[in-house]
Write a structure and sequence with these properties.
globular; 4 helices; 13-stranded mixed β-sheet; alpha+beta; single chain
Length: 235
């Protein structure tokens, strides 16, 4: 009898835990493997290492400035990345605290920053979050212990329209945690319409103009963002 009571208690506890997990999952969405997600079509182990992840976007509540993010790769092969607008952006293979260039592509000038200099790039909230996402070890799929394997899917309304959403979070010591939610017009859409970035204290919505993974030789109209040949170096 005691054994039966223990088994019954164990089953009840299991049901309770499963119920709690289901309730939590329903609020945040449904887990889905990264490989089977829309995000997985663009960001995956192969593209992170061998291609360039490109995001062309506009901050919805901003001044309407078109911005760009091209993912860097800090491992082998090393690749520099870019974040910002045509007239003010950061070109580097590392963080803002390391070497890189603050570039004005319109005026064809740049200011070089090297470790402890006084000209460190000052990113906006969206730039900081995207640079962290594009350079994070979490997106290297198995090369680090905490690589992302799952996205949370849901259906959310924005401006009166329903979207299929895919979300994931990345921890950042300074900001705590960034949450990235991609809004797709359908479950099988190739490109998201919007991207929301959130922390506990800040959030912003980005209108996505382009989001894709391409070979560096196929960057086309975006290739100039990674180059400063012939530019004037300012001091």
């Amino acid at each position: 009898m005691k054994m039966l009571k223990r088994v019954a208690a164990g089953l009840a506890a299991t049901v309770l835990v499963l119920g709690m997990l289901t309730a939590c999952g329903s609020e945040k969405g449904t887990p889905q493997s990264w490989a089977g997600s829309n995000l997985g079509k663009v960001i995956n182990a192969d593209t992170v290492k061998n291609s360039r992840i490109l995001l062309d976007y506009t901050v919805v509540e901003g001044a309407g400035t078109q911005k760009y993010a091209i993912g860097l790769h800090v491992g082998y092969p090393e690749k520099v990345g870019f974040i910002g607008s045509k007239d003010h952006g950061w070109l580097s293979g590392a963080s803002y605290n390391n070497k890189g260039k603050t570039v004005n592509h319109n005026q064809k000038t740049y200011i070089e920053y090297n470790y402890n200099g006084t000209t460190r790039y000052q990113p906006t909230f969206d730039e900081d979050a995207l640079w962290w996402m594009f350079s994070s070890d979490n997106l290297k799929f198995g090369s680090t212990y905490n690589s992302l394997q799952v996205v949370m899917t849901n259906e959310e309304k924005y401006k009166g329209k329903m979207y299929h959403t895919e979300s994931f979070a990345l921890r950042n010591g300074g900001a705590g945690e960034y949450t990235y939610t991609f809004y797709y017009e359908s479950k099988d859409a190739d490109k998201p319409a919007y991207l929301r970035i959130e922390t506990l204290s800040k959030s912003c919505m980005l209108k996505v103009n382009e989001f894709k993974a391409v070979a560096e030789s196929e960057l086309g109209e975006y290739a100039f963002l990674l180059k400063t040949e012939g530019y004037q170096k300012l001091t």
